[in-house]
């Protein structure tokens, strides 16, 4: 959450889901149960600055329907915002990007009967289409991030044809386009779902990865947004990362939320 030094996440506990934060820099931590309990199972979440809430994609337990919900940080109260059409969608775990300007929540997934993966866009704005989608033929989207300044969508994707993992720039509107800034790299990479970020100072997409052939310790890798060139950093047992704009560096935390 920009400006208040908190990272929001959903914690699955035996008693039900909770909205929690990793607070740093003196911010107070948040730990509240989602209510009403047992109504939804949130699978993807992002902080919506304009709405002062956490947006979540969730499965409604009563009918297993995919829905978009808003979560009040102070209370954990969950409100229904949008309902996707029947048969939409099976989402790729941990792959999510949020555009603070358009307020679209981008995820990767497939609708019933789809052969190709889709880039899906959900809007919390009343009166908007519940979900828009574009097929991404031949691609397996492993991670997504939206540039905070330009609104451009970037993805790490593995080609189903070549098996190479590389950086892509995806233009969703007005016409869907896929731009590959550089060339794919063999044996790069297994990408940890979830913890990715755009580093504006380095003009890079940053992810936690490890080599496909040797499932070793996770490493930071930076993918240059202009060329796709990869820089490999130190290994670390990390579980998440994000850009802290106030200090212009990447923040990292490791396992162990309690």
Structure description:
With 258 residues, this protein is an all-beta fold. The protein has no helices and 21 strands. It has strands at 6-13, 16-23, 31-33, 40-48, 53-60, 65-71, 78-83, 90-98, 105-110, 118-122, 131-135, 139-146, 153-159, 165-171, 177-179, 190-199, 204-210, 219-224, 230-235, 238-244, 249-254. The protein has a 4-stranded antiparallel β-sheet with strand order 4-5-6-7, with no helix packed on it. The protein has a 4-stranded antiparallel β-sheet with strand order 8-9-10-11, with no helix packed on it. 35% of the residues are buried. The model is unreliable at 246-258 (pLDDT under 50).
Q: Brief overview, please?
A:
The chain has 258 residues and is mainly beta.
Overall average pLDDT = 83
Number of helical elements: 0
- Report the sheet-strand fraction: over 45%
Q: What is the number of E strands?
A: 21
The biggest beta sheet reads: 4 strands, antiparallel
Q: What is the ordering of alpha helices and beta strands?
A: EEEEEEEEEEEEEEEEEEEEE
How far is the first residue's CA from the last residue's CA? 20 Å
Helix content: under 10%
- Residue stretches low in confidence (pLDDT < 50, at least 5 long) are 246-258
């Amino acid at each position: 959450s920009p400006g208040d030094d908190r990272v929001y996440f959903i914690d699955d506990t035996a008693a039900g889901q909770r909205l929690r934060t990793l607070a740093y820099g003196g911010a107070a931590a948040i730990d509240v149960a989602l209510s009403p309990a047992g109504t939804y199972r949130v699978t993807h979440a992002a902080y919506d600055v304009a709405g002062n809430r956490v947006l979540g994609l969730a499965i409604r337990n009563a009918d297993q329907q995919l829905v978009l919900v808003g979560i009040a940080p102070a209370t954990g109260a969950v409100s229904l915002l949008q309902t996707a059409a029947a048969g939409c969608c099976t989402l790729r775990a941990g792959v999510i990007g949020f555009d603070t300007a358009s307020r679209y929540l981008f995820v990767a997934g497939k609708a019933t009967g789809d052969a190709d993966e889709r880039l899906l866009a959900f809007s919390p704005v009343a009166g908007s289409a519940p979900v828009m989608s574009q097929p991404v033929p031949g691609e397996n989207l492993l991670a997504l991030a939206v540039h905070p300044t330009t609104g451009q969508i970037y993805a790490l994707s593995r080609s189903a044809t070549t098996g190479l993992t590389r950086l892509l720039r995806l233009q969703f509107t007005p016409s869907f386009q896929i731009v590959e800034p550089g060339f794919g790299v063999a044996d790069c990479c297994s990408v940890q779902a979830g913890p990715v970020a755009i580093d504006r100072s380095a003009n890079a997409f940053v992810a936690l990865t490890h080599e496909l052939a040797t499932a070793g310790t996770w490493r930071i890798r930076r993918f240059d947004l202009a060329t796709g060139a990869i820089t490999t950093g130190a290994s670390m047992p990390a579980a998440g990362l994000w850009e802290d704009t106030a200090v212009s560096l990447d923040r990292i935390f490791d396992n162990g939320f309690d």
